[in-house]
Amino acid sequence: MAKQGAKTAVPRLRFPEFVGKPFREVHLKDLTSESITRNVDGLSTKSVMGVTKAEGIVPMEERLIASDIARYKVVQKDWFAYNPMRLNIGSIARWQGDSDILVSPDYVVFQCSKGLGSEIAPAYLDHFRQSGAWEKFVTEGGDGSVRVRIYYKDLARLQVTLPSLAEQKKIADCLTSLDEVIAVQGCKVEALKAHKRGLMQQLFPREGETRPRLRFPEFRDAPEWKWTTLNRVCDMQAGKFVSASEISDEPGEGTYSCYGGNGLRGFTKSFTHSGVFPLIGRQGALCGNVQFAKGEFHATEHALVATPQAGVNVTWLYYTLGKLELNKYATGQAQPGLSVDVLKSVECSVPATETEQKRIADCLSSLDTRITAEADLLATLKTHKQGLMQQLFPAPEATCA
């Protein structure tokens, strides 16, 4: 319980019917209990699950499952499970399926209490674990100096400012509804990206073919595409080295965007290019990554600047370079890199006219514009939820024991 004389923290936002209603200060151990129920009923390996931050509870890879799963722990509907070595990065989830599942014996499993006066709604706790108070506690708590281990006894010390069960359910319903909107929007973005990938497969000829499977009506009787090499389509040159001390994090008067192999690095007081160019990442994990740079900008030595040859549409070139999956041409073990000499001989197919190139480029650009708009809306919804949670749950400094 809260210390005598301590002021109970309250959220900044409450539903009208609960304004003025009291809260209770309790610890998680007063609201939950750990479960160590083992696989005595002989559930199969198909029931074995793992927990990830991004996807929640997912089937465990078969190679990671022990040959004997008798000691694996049972998880029932609305119970929580997590790896004590990964809780601090958010790998915890509530199981919402109807059938029991199993998790590794190394996992922590706990359930919400249902007794009068100590009841917490599982859905409310599920949202609360995404709050600032929870994050602050699990970041600072636990055992171990190298890898933090947070067992149930550690988590049980978390102090929770708890409203009535009715208010808990109202908060949970509100956030769950918003989660559903976010999920639908996320699916919409992924569907558009998948549509674009499929469209590109049809708008460009397959290897060894000279006609795409999908062609705009006005070009159906146009000449066949021609296969050539990248050196006949564009000129590729590495950017110019700039020291880290010359790159600022924020733009200022007289500064220009500075691009490396994986996007915007910062801003410099000089520029190497002016216009519109595709940039190819030439080193590291993002080797072969293609991006667009416009205006006056500085390209570092980690990017190859592709300048289209006469008769080549620059936007069509951007999409062509992206479709070619240039990373597969990287050489080197420790630090894979792209060589201009190697890329020059990479084969690609080109429409007979720049008009058809532009038509393809405009189509894909329009789709990219829509994808960006939908992705921005998704980001806005996620930001809205974060802001709403900050107001529906008390501030973290007031709720950590």
Automatic annotation (TrEMBL):
Instruction: Give the main EC class.
Output: hydrolase
* Alphabetical UniProt keywords: DNA-binding, Endonuclease, Hydrolase, Nuclease, Restriction system
GO molecular function annotation? endonuclease activity; hydrolase activity
Which Pfam families does this UniProt record tie to the protein? Methylase_S (PF01420)
Q: Could you list the residue ranges that cross the membrane?
A: none
EC numbers for this chain? 3.1.21.-
Q: Which InterPro entries match?
A: Restrct_endonuc_typeI_TRD, Restrct_endonuc_typeI_TRD_sf, Type-I_RS_S_subunit
Residues forming the Type I restriction modification DNA specificity domain are 144-184, 224-382
Which CDD domains does the entry mention? Answer: RMtype1_S_Sau1132ORF3780P-TRD2-CR2_like
Q: Which family does it belong to?
A: Belongs to the type-I restriction system S methylase family.
Name of the protein: Restriction endonuclease subunit S
Q: Which organism is it from?
A: Lysobacter zhanggongensis
Source organism phylogeny: Bacteria, Pseudomonadati, Pseudomonadota, Gammaproteobacteria, Lysobacterales
